[in-house]
Amino acid sequence: MADVQDRKALDRVVEAAGGAQAPGRGLPPVHLWNPAHTGEIDIVIRKDGSWVHEGGVIGREALVRLFSTILRKDPDGIFLVTPVEKLKIAVEDAPFVAVAVDREGEALRFTTNVGDTIEAGPENPIRVETGADGEPRPYVHVRRGLEALIARPVFYELAEMAEERDGVLGVASNGAWFPIGPAQ
């Protein structure tokens, strides 16, 4: 019975999300929506950026991109939000993965696994944590508290672009400087 209810919830989210965003008009205003119906749905965004529903990978790229536009981070978790429904999902690390970076003038422009482009800067900072394994875990802010894990090859590209300041390697973008690790 729970599987049937979860599939119905998924169908409702797909329908509402599809109508919430007009083509060419940007992201829907999920930060303004406070639907009365709330709950959870068995969707997990894995560390590698894949989306899983009821144990199966969501293979339709268009569906994943659609869902990515209605994500919202609240103090109690990450949700798929439509005007009529707010459903909590699980996220293993970050909801997005930065899969490419390009230097365009003074800006570092990242592209995510769902096609978003973000310019790092004061509004979209880069930060690096150290994981339990001692490895760097770099992130770039995407929108409204949602971040993208910077993929390892992309982080290597950042390291190639880095400059040293006071014994710290970092990168500059849009007038801001972001430390990415110690100079060695």
Proportion of beta-strand residues: 35-45%
Q: Output the structural class.
A: alpha+beta
Averaging pLDDT over every residue, what do you get? Answer: 89
Q: What fold name goes in the CATH topology slot of the largest domain?
A: duf1285 like fold
By CATH, the superfamily of the largest domain comes out as duf1285 like domain
Number of domains: 2
Find the count of extended strands (DSSP E, 2+ residues).
15
Low-pLDDT segments, ≥5 res = 18-23
Q: What's the story with the biggest beta sheet? A: 6 strands, mixed
Query: What is the top-level CATH class of the largest domain?
Result: Alpha Beta
- How are the strands of the biggest sheet laid out side by side? 3-2-1-6-5-4
Bin the helical content.
10-25%
Order of helices and strands: HEEEHEEEEEEEEEHEEE
Which descriptors apply to this entry?
single chain; 184 residues; alpha+beta; duf1285 like fold; duf1285 protein fold; 2 domains; six-stranded mixed beta sheet; 3 helices; 15 strands; 20% helix
